[in-house]
Amino acid sequence: MRNRIRERFRGDMELSELPHHALLGVISIPGAAGASPWALIVRRLAYAFILLFAVAFIVYVDRDGYSEDLTFIDAFYYSAVSLSTTGYGDITPVTQSARLINIVIITPLRVAFLILLVGTTLSVLTEDSRKALQIQRWRKRVRNHTIVVGYGTKGRSAVSALLADGVPPNQIVVIDPDRSALARAENQGLVTVHGTATKADVLKIAGVGRARSVVVAPNMDDTAVLVTLSVRELAPSAMIVASVRESENQHLLEQSGADSVVISSETAGRLLGLATVTPSVVEMMEDLLSPGEGFSVAERPVAEDEVGANPRHLADIVLGLVRSGELYRIDSPEAESVEPGDRLLYVRRVTGEDVRTP
Length: 358
What we know:
Layout: H1 2-9, E1 27-28, H2 37-61, H3 72-83, H4 96-125, H5 127-141, E2 146-149, H6 153-164, E3 172-176, H7 179-187, E4 191-194, H8 200-205, E5 213-216, H9 221-234, E6 239-244, H10 250-256, E7 260-263, H11 264-277, H12 279-289, E8 294-301, E9 317-323, E10 326-329, E11 343-350
Parallel strand pairs: 2-3, 2-5, 3-4, 5-6, 6-7
Antiparallel strand pairs: 1-4, 8-11, 9-10, 9-11
């Protein structure tokens, strides 16, 4: 049954088998924004005209040393044919000083002029090769990154939380079929992959096999189930956090391999209900869930001097503890005392200088 469902979404072209230069329109790697080819050409042409005028001025100043009685137009003409190595021979230096100036000044400028024009052409033509090499290096080195499937409202919020928690932008990969959404992700310095994550080859070129975690946040619940199935098959050890709109689909995601499932419609509904009765509670919940200034729920390892203590009596406001991968609330019997290796969930004051808690 799973194979039949997956075949509906599988494409004929395996992107993971394509050469790196064929992925230029699929993968975008963050980096310093370079000038467009047209801007590069215009800037180089401006440099070339500066050289032309400079040589024309030099020739005009020494106009008595040439075979013709030169005007400035004649000097500019000689500059153009000389620097471009055309050399018609109708104007030639005849005095010793004019020939010396041609050897010492104009010849090096001629070489610089040619390098300038050839360099412009090579820069434009090799831009795609540079990007292809960048993609090749990224695919070879990327590991322990986070993949976000879908860059809608949920995906953007997830990325904001990751960035606020200290995750480097180049360690976040966004997969989305909408190029306008990917453009917004690129503006944040994120690596982007154009395509649908229901296809295994798209997940492969995003490096899902070496990813630390995957956030599944598409707009459709059936898409979330299929993506989770594919991710779990390709990355058995990755942490998968998925979102669904309806609670009746939660068990499908859990059966598909999701480690954690967030029900967006029920969560929003609870907040709406609370807002009608106790708006201040909703404001505090938003503060805890929103990255940036205010309070947030964080996780940290237990300090040596905290082992054996009751977590209710610690300096931090502890909400629960994680022991051997299991979460225990502060009111559970297992949370009566702190044991070595435990991790505490607590309320942390967030400032602009905070970094991710280890």
